[in-house]
Amino acid sequence: MGDYLVLVISCIFVNNILLMQYLGNCPFLGTSKKIETAVGMAMAVVFVLVMAGVITWVTNKLFLVPYNLEYLKTLSFILVIASLVQFVEMFLKKSIPALYAGLGIFLPLITTNCAVFGVCIINIREEYTFFEALVSSFSYAVGFGLALILFAGVRERILLGRVPKPLQDTSIALVTAGLLSLTFFAFKGMV
Amino acid sequence: MAKSIVQEFTKGLWEEIPPFRLVLGLCPVLAVTKSVENGIGMGLATTFVLIGSNLLVSAMRKVIPNKIRIACFIIVIATFVTVVELLMQAYTYALFLQLGIFIPLIVVNCIVLGRAEAFAFKNGIIPSLADGAGIGIGFTLALAALGAVRELLGNNSITIWSPWDLSFPMILGSSFQPFTFMVEAPGAFMCLGLMLCFMNLFEK
User: Fold this and answer.
1) Contacts of A21 in chain B (CB under 8 A)
2) Which pTM value belongs to this model?
3) How far apart are CA A32 and CA A148, in angstroms?
4) Neighbours of B186 (CB within 10 A)
5) Which domain holds residue B134?
6) Which of B30, B104, B197 lies closest to A74 in CB terms?
7) Residues B160-172: pLDDT tens digits?
8) Any idea which of A1-10, A65-74, A105-114, B195-204 has the lowest mean pLDDT?
């Protein structure tokens, strides 16, 4: 149990996927202008990442490793993720329209979200067991959501302030992300 | 519409230089620019994938059905990424280890997919080749520039290619105290933000 707790904390805070591992930065900057969109994106990522993490782990174990096809990892994982996203989208549209309305526009974006693909690769590289892969996928996704929502909150405040002209928009957002990353830096060495 | 091949090539170097003008594909930009060497290596790997995928997508643009084009693009890109991954593992193993997870991640780099969708799918083979090469080289230059700033301030050195021993330690003199902050994650974000700011300033 203790090992899992360490894994959870290290995935959410110490190795935060956005701020410490630099993955998933495009949606980080793209969907953080408003808190509502940030929450939508965060939920969609949690939803898809857990499933993608589990399915790619199983794919690797059942199909790639036994036939020595590990070099096809990139190709097969991206296919699995893309079809998973498509499937989830169709399933939600049909059976849970309320959730679909909330997550809808964010789902297609997730296919090219490197956080999802990155975590799947990390799970394999670190040679996690099935449950460890499950827990790490979930915790990384939570870490993503946490950082994204915090960042969106800060960005909404920045809109109220006066920003020098050349620094506006993406530029100030990146500097802010740097400061946020600095705060997460404090967790380094905790685990 | 009738832009010359040269224009298609040069627009990637300044007009649409990623990641500054097209704010896409930020993850590798932030992650691998700890040194100039890594930046250049990553840039060239991405350039290879960009040129390959642009060529193939443009050659097959009449065959690919519109509805499943994104899936087709991704498969084409993933194939080239696998090629690069295996080549780097064979010939530049040290760099392969340094870049690690970011080589397979070229597959989800939005620049590559973005160029396939926005350019190669609508244009002929030669302009697509020029576009891919231009954007790729622009990306490499940007990575090298960012890497130079970060490595200089964070490590007080510039390494261009360590196997050939093209490294210049102690550029700023031995009394300079490097900010290790610059080679870590927060420095990456701030450095890129400030470079964007300078670029905006310069343009006026």
Assistant:
1) 31
2) 0.85
3) 7
4) 21
5) 5-203
6) B104
7) 766 666 667 666 6
8) A105-114
